[in-house]
Specification:
Radius of gyration of chain A: 19 Å
Distance between the termini of chain A: 50 Å
CATH class of chain A: Mainly Alpha
Largest interface: A-B, 38 and 38 residues
CATH topology of chain A: Tetracycline Repressor, domain 2
Largest sheet of chain A: none
Oligomer: homodimer
CATH architecture of chain A: Orthogonal Bundle
Strand content of chain A: under 5%
Chain lengths: 187, 187
Amino acid sequence: MAGRGAYAKGIAKREEILAVALEVIARNGYRGASVREIAEAVGLSQAGLLHYFGSKDELFTAVLVKRDEVDTSDAMGDILDDLVRIVAHNAEVPGLVHLFAHLSIEAADPEHPAHGFFIERYAHLRETLAARIRAGQADGSLRAELDPERAAAVVVAAADGLQAQFLLDPSVDMAAELTAMIEDLRA
Amino acid sequence: MAGRGAYAKGIAKREEILAVALEVIARNGYRGASVREIAEAVGLSQAGLLHYFGSKDELFTAVLVKRDEVDTSDAMGDILDDLVRIVAHNAEVPGLVHLFAHLSIEAADPEHPAHGFFIERYAHLRETLAARIRAGQADGSLRAELDPERAAAVVVAAADGLQAQFLLDPSVDMAAELTAMIEDLRA
DNA sequence: GTCTATAGACCGATAGAC
DNA sequence: GTCTATCGGTCTATAGAC
């Protein structure tokens, strides 16, 4: 895997493009963040950029995966706390929240490059949460009458829905609402 | 307001366009539902259609308002029941759910024609739900420790988030999940 | 008032030269 | 690996016929 110069340079360039794209989107928002604009910010032509990522959707999907990796590496252990912390952090980068929301809707099409990513992301998130809820029920810290799978799906849904409300009206305090909801799960 | 022939005809044409657009979107989905396609389905040129609605976004916003009117007229009285019924019905028209989700994200831009619509829609929905929760707490049918405003915001958010999960994976049973969530609010 | 036709701007995608 | 040039598609705007 430790490729030679040319290969390694390609990888590095991809990383550089992703970092710049993340900046541009976080600053200018998703709207108007065209491939051309990002390409110019990196110092490439539009076609030059699309050499590294086959299409606009693939580029933006890669940005998403990258953000997810960063979020995951920041995780502290308790998924309930992590979720609230991620949501709180998201309030500071509305452009990225917009990109995420936008792509999650567009990826409904099975042909979309990010379709698999979102399917797996939701499945993994729901499983992790359900396991955490079961553990909490076992040690008596969470209410016993909850259905772990259903509660997990609804917590994930609420987090997404709160982001939509936040995008429309930035005064919505996503983290506070989500915290209150999670508090309500406790015994 | 009872205009003469020409005016009334314009109104009727608008209604006809909205009805056809609703059909096309429900059938073909939002993706690929271009102004041209809808115009041809009505028997108009693209520019002919845009004479009635200033832009694509305005047209789609009008479709949304129309759907909302239909939903509202179907309401039976109890907002909690109505919400579940609307969500259940939505599972049968994924194209419309897609349109709704897509526009609600795009409308985050304050310049978007549907921005005000969504702001008001969420505010109204949250108020109505909060009032219903307060009433339920007064008569002892809903849990007393809930914060009515927060619970209302979270229920709305969950409904939206479940729609996003449903669009990605149609096997997700939105109505069942939402019903379970609402059950959990009861005393 | 209503509609057709057309033109311009922008975008993403692709071909092919270097 | 990067560029220029170009293509097809979408939205918007407008001039002018009816």
